Amino acid sequence: MVQVSQNDNIEVFKTMKISTKPMSSKASEQSESPEETVTVIPCKYPGKTKTQEESKLPLSSSIKTDIKDSEIVRICRSKRITCQDTIHEYDEDDGLTMEKVGRYLEAHPEAAEAWLRENASLELRQRLQGVALPQPNSPTRSIHQEENLLSRSKRNSVTSDLFQSWLASSSPAKRSRSPSRTYSSLVGRREELNRLDESDLFMELIRDVANELDINVLCHKILVNVGLLTHADRGSLFLAKGPFDDRYLVAKLFDVTQDTELEEAVQRAKNEEIKIPFGVGIAGYVAQTKEIINIKDAYKDPRFNSSIDMRTGYKTTLILSMPISNYEGDVIGVAQIINKTNGSNEFTDRDVEVFQRYLTFCGIGIQNAQLFELSVQEYRRNQILLNLARNIFEEQNNLECLVTKIMTEAKELLKCARCAVYLLDLDCGEAGHLEKIVERPGKSTQESRKPLSRRESNNIEMEDIFTQHALNDHNKFTTIFEMDNETQEAKVYRPSGNELSTPLGQIAKYVAATGQILNIGDVATWLKKDVVQSGSEPIKSILCMPIVNGQRTVIGVAQLINKDNGTSFTDSDVSIFEAFAIFCGLGIHNTQMYESACKLMAKQKVALECLSYHATASNDDTLKLTSEPIPSAESFNLYSFTFIDFDLTDEDTCRATIRMFKQCDLIGKFHIPYEVLCRWVLSVKKNYRPVKYHNWRHALNVAQTMFAMLKTGKMEQFMTDLEILGLLVACLCHDLDHRGTNNAFQTKTESPLAILYSTSTMEHHHFDQCVMILNSDSNNIFQNLSMEDYRKVMKVVESAILSTDLAVYFKKKNKFMELIDEGEFDWQSEEKKELLCGMMMTACDVSAIAKPWEVQHRVAKLVADEFFDQGDLERLQLNQQPVAMMDRERKDELPQMQVGFIDVICIPLYKVLADTFPWIMPLYEGTMENRKHWQDLAEKVEMGLTWIDRDTIDDPVEEFVSYEPKDIEFTVTTLNCAHSDRKDVPEKSALGRFASLRKGGRTLSKGVRHRISRSLYARSTPEDAAKSKALIPDRKSRNKLCLLI
Question: Can the keyword Repeat be found in this entry's annotation (predicted)?
Fold first, then answer.
């Protein structure tokens, strides 16, 4: 019989301790059969309700249950079992023994299976199946959470959970992936393993390390398991480190026995860092040669280092050392076991075979653990760098605060005693930083993008630094920031010559000059003299690295001094610090640029104040214009589309402008102070540059055409008074500060204007100049408008000025044409009104094409001269061939280009406007009339007339004739325009000769036309005319001349 507590399911763990005792006689008498019983303590376990867990019977109370009723209790081989809750001891019944229970279970395995299926908890089933259970300190997952875990597998939640649990654990034992096998119970586990046969033991030990990712736990398990397999007394495991040409071994765990706790072994390895170069000692020899060494007497091997035995008092006799390789065959570590525990005097071939087989699997586990450790380090590094970036870019307005934060982060990141930052004087003044701000991206060369090189202290001699770079004047440090562990405060100062001549200063100058990373592991040995003192701490190691900006220009140097643990800076430290320095460089550079930008903004504000003062008309000129009477609009011919400004003085142009405001009654409607209006007009005039065409008079003509369209063309019926005000202001300001060059030239030369405005460059600048003038209180003609009216009128002004860009016109033209074709008559919506105003602005801007021919011919020459000046600049500054309309050498083609300009832009615009608004038909008619003149002029230019050299076309066209094909001599004759005192040359004869030249059917070459052009400037005398008449050939000869040409 088995006694159990009433209504309780029973679970007895391996770790429960129980002792049995004979039942009382009374209890024995109550037994229905002489079967013997055993008393079991009720224990709590997960999976039961609170009521079941809390229901405990007194130790004396128990009930009897027949063992055949499948209430089987699993009793461990050990007779002493410890309960999780309390410890009580019972005496074993004389009749029921462990052997009887074992035999019963062997004869009836279905009984144990049935009980486990019906009563065993999930925890017990997992334990029996060998599944690792969570530690008590780690969070447990419910079944629902496990299902969620599977459903989230596509989002790598398993990896995320693994990382989070790994990072949250502070000790290696807690990070172990098999926490059920802790090393506090190694004795019990060893007894279990000893009962396994060799093959099962081997697989069990492989399974033990297969999924372990913590390198410390893994190495500890390897050494302990190897001790079990080979009966070794103790072992050590070394891992390979360093670059390919300088490999060495580091003792990960040293002298580990089967009873050594993990934390103890790890702490000992940290305290006693053992570094063995490849080829040195037994382990180094194994790492270099990949050979297996089995030594029976260590003291007879010259490679053995007996100093460790002398220090520890341990006697080393047997040594079995073996390399651990990865799948590529590279040595990643060396395992070494010492002495046997079973009294044997050697490691047998069987031991070597088992050791070698086991290390094959261990090599895979070690590499996996190292890779995982690298990924964890990279994860932590990324988190640190992200946090650093966040902190750095939050502090962009003060360089000292930024560098202090950088030094604090660096000391915390790399655990060093002292940090210093040296900032260079790179001529980073306001002008230099302004150049960087306006510099176009993509100009950095590949040379400037070279990665930083690393140099260890053994690759460079101290003399190289002190002799080559000690006196470099171009590496001047303006500021030094320092922080150490003593004060934890940043010290900022300007270095003197003596401070920069110290070894630390020279090292910093060397790094700044070469851009190389310098890692000095032993300063005293490297300097070849006494250790340099820094405060109260001796300098042992230095890591010095350049700080670069986005253009890879060195802007400073960062120095780290002395690791907190007394070791030198590792390759991992260098890698992390290199990434750290990149963020620091960007942060420092941005902060320097921010400070410079603040100074530039202050300077710009002062410059704008000065510009505003000088751009504003003087009080004397304003007072004079204010006091003078303004003539009528009729006297200026303002209502006519044939307005001419050639006869107006500069003062008259200002009066005409004011008259347009008066005629529209804008002064009274918007309460514009008359003095402010006069000053504004004079200021606008003053801000136009004296270029040949896009000057103040062009602005006046555009404004007058708008005035004529509004009044004579009756377009004002579609506009509000506020829009009329905005349109007149836009016309007067639409070319403010024009430089005589177009948008394409600004883009080609990468001017500051092109950087400020990517589209409609000059138009945006014109509007900005308009706003600058209006922002002055003495020029603000909108000062009495409400906020809403001010917003509306400024929107009209901006849209109208930007519409003068022909690129904008071409974008809007099709939409405007569609509305006209649809018979649109309602132009009051905001979108349609803006479209109409844009078309009107373009019509006014090119209205010179509709002026009388005498005016148009003269204006065209001004436009051509300005274009030719830009073409000359393109040849001179950009070394580019200008387009035809700006090429001075192709000026004869300008009439034909004028015809093309009229056909493509002017006629379609004026035609649709005239058809829709008949009162502006004069613009279309004037354009068509001028087109005839340009077409006629283009035909005459083909026959030798260089039109641009003369103001009119009333000068003679000359014919040149020669019979010599190699050297043609041209003679001038007069055609259709003889002098009044020369009656000897009939007009019809001259016309006939001119017509005969045109009928030749061949176009004269460019050289001939130039020679004709030069001859036009010389007046022919009567004698010359007589000579030329005598030399005029007949028709057949003229045809022959055309063929020769």
Answer: yes
